Amino acid sequence: MSQAPAPLSTWARNIAPSPTLAVDAKAKALLAAGEDVCGFAAGEPDFDTPEHIKEACIAALKAGKTKYAPTPGIEPLRQAIADKYAADYGLKVAPSQVIVSPGGKFSCYLTILAVCSPGDEVIIPAPFWVSYPEMVKLAGATPKIVLADDTTGFRLTPAMLEAAITPRTRLIIINSPSNPTGAVYSRAELEAIAAVALRHNCYVMSDEIYEHLTYDGATPTCFATLGADIGARTITVSGFSKPYAMTGWRLGTTVAPAPIAKAVAELQSQTSSNATTFAQYGALAALKEKEKTRAALAQMLAAFDRRRKFLHAELSKIPGVRCLLAQGAFYLFPNISSFGLKSEEFCTRLLDEQKVAAVHGSAFGAEGYLRLSYATSDEIIAKGVSRLAKFCSGLSK
Ligand SMILES: *Cc1c(COP(=O)(O)O)cnc(C)c1O
User: What is the pLDDT of residues 250-305, one digit of tens each?
Assistant: First the structure.
């Protein structure tokens, strides 16, 4: 008689699979089955990677850049990333403080592993990117969620942060521009957050992956530049996925104080070795061939901005929907609480009845909202939002 296999691990049993990837996969399956689905669920640019970046990668492949690279990344790329931070933000870092990882998601995970131990608390403002709480749990630490809803523009205030801090708080996660809300903190707001973090000697992981996607003249702030003291406690995460339409390349970056950068590199050496070698040469071209990259980015930004304004204007016409005009990323996060449905039920019915895919706010720790990604075509946005309006008018009858 054979015994039943032993149960899976605590980690495997406690992890929640990514709800955004799940909704997007369901929408794509319906599309593949011939259904006329309007997808607002994707968390990636709908553009292709700019040509010069692809060419550089192809050249690297042909030149035989097919072996392991140094764990923290190829030297010229680490130098180019350090140069970028100096040029964009005046942040002086040595290439040794830069780690290139297989995706910004992995950069976040290694950062959390580098600073958090079991029993530590990590403050995560909600609405949050779905992976943060799961990563914190995988590190054995405890996520402490603090809801910053649309009444504060989805931005954590210093008072809210102060109230959530305990002697166990080790790390505070800040994501500006934000996924899922598109909110962008001002420099002054971040200075106030930094002051609280410093007073309690907490680390800050600043996820700046949407740094280049801002509108209406809003500018991203590099948290690490807010002062030498807070800079010594800040780990900056970013990557190539969002600004350069390179999601499939899997390239993320961490810039950290030397001891943390060393820890991140050591954790990476035992878990993934390096990010794909020839892909790093594509990333190098993204940073080196500045004019071409700037032109490609400007084109994407113009399309995103046009869609953002259109989607917002259309949402604002729907009775019962309230939506802030976010100034970053490629998401809007309308409030649908007036309809009295849980956001998950709202989204399930929206997909079933109107073939519109959106992600429920509860997935991001904020009940009563939807996340709509406008990284899709103008036609789909127009069609999808008119179906959403029809759905809402059916609910309020
Ligand atoms: C997309 C995203 C990332 C990382 O994406 P990768 O594709 O793994 O580089 C990190 N943080 C946020 C908030 C994101 O939306």
Answer: 999 999 999 999 999 999 999 999 999 999 999 999 999 999 999 999 999 999 99
DSSP 29-61: HHHHTT---EE----S-SSPPPHHHHHHHHHHH
Instruction: Identify the structural domains of the chain with CATH numbers, from first to last.
Output: 10-48+293-396 (3.90.1150.10), 53-289 (3.40.640.10)
Nearest-atom number in ligand 1 for the CA of 239 is 9
Q: What is the pLDDT of residues 82-100, one digit of tens each?
A: 999 999 999 999 999 999 9
Pocket test of ligand 1: the residue of 99, 100, 109, 207 to mutate, having most ligand atoms within 8 Å of its CB, is: 207
- What phi and psi, each to the nearest 5 degrees, are found at residue 125? -70, 135
Residue whose C-alpha is closest to residue 353's, from 34, 10, 5, 35: 35
The residue whose C-alpha atom lies closest to atom 13 belonging to ligand 1 is: 179
What residues are in contact with ligand 1 under a 6 Å CB criterion?
A: 43, 103-105, 108, 129, 175, 179, 207, 209, 239, 241-242, 247, 252
**Average pLDDT estimate for 173-201:** 98
Closest to 330 measured CA to CA, from 344, 313, 317, 311: 311
Find out whether 246 and 48 touch, Cβ atoms under 8 Å. no
- Asked whether 244 and 277 are in contact (CB, 8 A), the reply is no
Give counts: helices (H), strands (E), the chain: 14, 12
Pocket of ligand 1, candidates 112, 185, 242: which has the most ligand atoms within 8 Å of its Cβ, to mutate? 242
